[in-house]
Amino acid sequence: MSDPFFEQIRARLIVSCQALEDEPLHGSDVMAKMAKAAEIGGAAAIRANGADDVRAIRQAVPLPVIGLVKRNYPDSEIYITSTRREVDELIEAGASMIAFDATRRPRPSGETLESLIAYMHSRGVKMMADISTLEESAYAASLGVDCVSTTLSGYTPYSPQDPGPDLQLIREAVRALSIPVIAEGKIWDPSQAVQALEAGAYAVVVGSAITRPQLIAERYASAIRRAAKAAQPAEQACNEGPRAHS
Description:
By secondary structure, the protein is of the alpha/beta class. Helix content is 47%, strand content 14%.
């Protein structure tokens, strides 16, 4: 693929720099700094939530920015770039590519997946279709998206609920599609990122394991608590041993 964007991200890391309103690092200034840190660390592109963050990150780093908007609507489960409203916001902010929920679930305000993709085609923007199943990836590809991402596997009730990345979906999508398949979702350590590339992923997106320190700290704290709890019976046995023989 000769497109400069895809040449830049081929077999590289894309870092998702996102923090929702209830998270400690929420704020465009912080996300711009996070993106700068990701660039220094070797990221080839950034994935960002919200027009303000996209603008701030574009000013902070020379990397392409994949933009999305997470917004809740009362009449739909879809909240990643659900409608043309979000698309327009991201285009105005200068996103290099727009990521959106490409599942076939009902969209808000009567929007349809087909009409949304057609609108993005008319605006001339690159599209990353976030999918959760092979069928969804094939349908999105048939509608002319530029790439698919396994972002939503495990986040729809009908997709595999595994703790790690959906490597099987990556393999199947790579075999079935002629467009790039991006690995994203539940990638917690470098070895899993390598496994995704070995499964055929064109590039790998990592978010929480890099940019959400509260989740990183929680994983360490939980592991330490489990280890401490497992060690308690042995410690008790050692402490009680001498008394048993006195």
